[in-house]
């Protein structure tokens, strides 16, 4: 099946079966796509800290 988008705006996200009517689908988590993932600054800082902390623990364990 092919979907044709005819508006002048850019598509930001798309979802297949948003109301979960298709009973045969085993994994509802893979039914959508997002053009750009937006993470809050807190998440970016936390990931940076976890990366740094993991490196520190790896260095100390040697």
Keywords summarizing the entry:
single chain, 62 residues, two-stranded antiparallel sheet
What does this entry look like structurally?
- The chain is α+β, with helices and mostly antiparallel strands and 62 residues long.
- The protein has one domain.
- It is built from 1 helix and 2 strands, in the order E-E-H.
- It has one helix spanning 41-60; strands spanning 13-15, 32-34.
- The protein has a two-stranded antiparallel sheet.
Describe how the helices and strands are arranged:
Blueprint: E1 13-15, E2 32-34, H1 41-60
Antiparallel strand pairs: 1-2
Beta-sheet strand percentage? 5-15%
Distance linking N and C termini: 55 Å
What helical percentage do the residues reach? Answer: 25-40%
Main sheet attributes: strand count, strand direction, barrel closure: 2 strands, antiparallel
Low-pLDDT residue intervals, each spanning 5 or more residues:
none
Tell me the number of strands. Answer: 2
Strand line-up across the major sheet: 1-2
What number is the mean pLDDT?
A: 80
Task: Please provide the ordered H/E string of secondary-structure elements.
Answer: EEH
Radius of gyration over alpha carbons? 20 Å
**Any idea how many domains?**
1
Structural class by secondary-structure content: alpha+beta
In short:
The chain is α+β, with helices and mostly antiparallel strands. It contains one helix and two strands; from the N terminus they run E-E-H. It has a two-stranded antiparallel sheet with strand order 1-2.
């Amino acid at each position: 099946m092919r979907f044709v988008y005819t508006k002048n705006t850019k598509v930001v996200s798309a979802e297949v079966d948003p109301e979960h009517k298709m009973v045969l689908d085993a994994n509802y988590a893979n039914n959508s796509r997002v053009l750009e993932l937006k993470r809050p600054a807190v998440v970016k800082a936390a990931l940076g800290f976890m990366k740094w902390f993991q490196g520190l623990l790896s260095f100390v364990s040697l």
